[in-house]
Amino acid sequence: MDDCIFCDILAGQAEASFVAGDERVVAFADILPIGEGHTLVIPRRHAIGLHDLDPEDGAAMFRLGQRIAAAQRRLGLAEGVNLFLADGVVAGQEVFHAHLHVLPRQDGDALTLSVDYAPAPSRDALDTTAARLRDALEHTGG
Ligand code: AMP
Ligand code: ZN
User: Fold this and answer.
1) 21-27: which pairs have CB atoms within 8 A and are 24 or more residues apart?
2) What is the largest CA-CA distance in the chain?
3) Burial of 5 (0-12, 13-18, 19+ CB in 10 A)
4) Residue 95 alpha carbon, nearest atom of ligand 1
């Protein structure tokens, strides 16, 4: 893929600090870490986001992310871990080659996740939305 920094890394045309990899996925250090050990897991096959990501590549990303999270904890780099994938600009995606962040969390670290909650919806509203999603999943074979 032209003009993709992560494809350049995979092709050896841009530098990276590699952590692990297999036939489907590769993990390397985030260049601007939220904390020591912050790692990205990407598919070897270019995909922009969830819509074009091979589900088997997605599964491999999660599997490797889970192992890296355990390694971060073993090394004392993480008291907790967030797995994070930004799919789309509105979700905060800045690099358009799918990637899973493995974020090592420490008490008082620099990362904050905040939500301005609306009042909790009624059970009816939850049921209605759940039914819409069930229907959508049936019609996409998901
Ligand atoms: P986002 O698309 O918002 O999920 O985040 C993109 C992430 O990629 C950021 O955390 C960047 O620091 C990271 N990043 C961008 N370029 C590179 C690079 N050349 N090597 C490693 N990480 C990178
Ligand atoms: Zn790419």
Assistant:
1) 22/60, 22/64, 24/56, 24/57, 24/60, 25/57, 25/60, 25/61, 25/64, 27/64, 27/65, 27/68, 27/102
2) 54
3) middle
4) 2
Which residues lie with the beta carbon below 6 Å from any ligand 1 atom? 5, 14, 16, 30-32, 40, 86, 92-95
Kindly report, residue by residue over 83-138, the tens digit of the pLDDT.
999 999 999 999 999 999 999 999 999 999 899 999 999 999 999 999 999 999 99
Is the pLDDT score of 142 beyond 60?
no
Please, what are the domains in the chain? 5-110 (3.30.428.10)
Distance 99 CA to ligand 2 centre (A): 10
* Res 140: pLDDT: 81
